[in-house]
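Reviewers of the previous submission asked for a worked example of the structure-prediction workflow described in the proposal, so we include one complete record here. The input consisted solely of the amino acid sequence. No template or homolog information was supplied to the procedure at any stage.
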Amino acid sequence: MGNVYYANHLVWFEIGRTELVRQIGKVYREIEASGVFLPAVSVQINYRAPARYDDLLEIRTRVTKMSHVGIAFEYRIVRREPPDEALIAEGSSRHAFVDRNGKIVKNGLEILGIKR
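From that input alone, the workflow returned the following structure tokens.
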């Protein structure tokens, strides 16, 4: 069939989110070492076109909402190979700030270095 397995889109969302966090000067490993974790509490994906093996893809990620207990992201996966440039998928995810025991922490934005 040549199409990429649909669940790989979630991995690409995670890569986009990780790179966005890196752009603000943080590394997930360091965030978790500080005792704060960002588990997904909801994920939504709309598939627009098939991704195929060996496609050159671009993951566009942005923060859409921040609060003292969580953060939300929006994603767009785009095929970057002319003349076949196309929106492959778009979606969103929401994440809570929790400690090692899964309890909500209210200083997650501070740990990420984000000022509201």
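Strands lie at 40-47, 57-66, 70-79, 86-96. We consider this example representative of the routine output the project will generate in years two and three.
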